[in-house]
Design brief:
globular; alpha/beta; 7 helices; binds magnesium ion; binds adenosine-5'-diphosphate; four-stranded antiparallel sheet; six-stranded mixed sheet; 32% helix
Amino acid sequence: MSVVAVTHRLRIEGLRAEVGGRPILNGIDLEVASGEVHAVMGPNGAGKSTLSHVLMGRSGYTVSGGRVLLDGVDLLALPAWERAREGLFLGMQYPIEVPGVSLQDALGEAFAAAGRDRREVTARLEAEADRVGLDRRFLDRPLNVDLSGGERKRNETVQLAVLRPRFAILDEIDSGLDVDALRAVSRRVEAATGETGLGVLAITHYSRLLTELHPDRVHVLAAGRIVASGGPELAEELERTGYAAYAEG
Ligand code: ADP
Ligand code: MG
């Protein structure tokens, strides 16, 4: 008996995007299936965060070509909240402070919008907070306000675990994390790949994350293109050699 009954697919085809008239993504092709972890690594300024924002539909980015299909539905035609309803989740590199809205409120709204019972939220939130070591007092406080880096990323992981998206894009979920937080967050995300068939696009600068969150595939993004793809050994190679070999000539 297979654990994941249904396989979903996130397909990125020839994705091009510009910011302020400047091309940043120059034709990205990637495909992630349920239960898989794909790492996207690359130097600063390569376009990693731009990729995450374009996938989620953040304003300020112009898509100039390509498609992003979740089980055949073109996400680029949808506003961000509908992409979320289709099962896409973004863990941001710099989670935004939302004064006046707690995690409890935000997830209650998300459940209601998805036609799920918002009364389930509290119990699930508490269980997930305990699981990743986030103090329960953060659940009723304004989202991300005055949180440390580690608390923010634990907070994002709790959101992910409660919402159970089909695919999560995690932009530098390792940034600003100490070893314990990195391990807690990675374990929870990895468990979700098995328990709910979560597919992950883990964007990171450092291979450190990938010693905890084990990727099936590793891709190198440089100057807005995927310039190399391979197995986990590619991350180890990058750790030794850096990105110099992939710099634009
Ligand atoms: P990475 O996450 O790989 O470090 P980014 O996607 O943040 O890279 O940035 C890629 C390039 O796009 C950089 O040159 C950056 O300056 C530019 N860029 C990204 N977002 C914006 C923006 N909102 N306005 C102007 N330039 C941007
Ligand atoms: Mg970035």
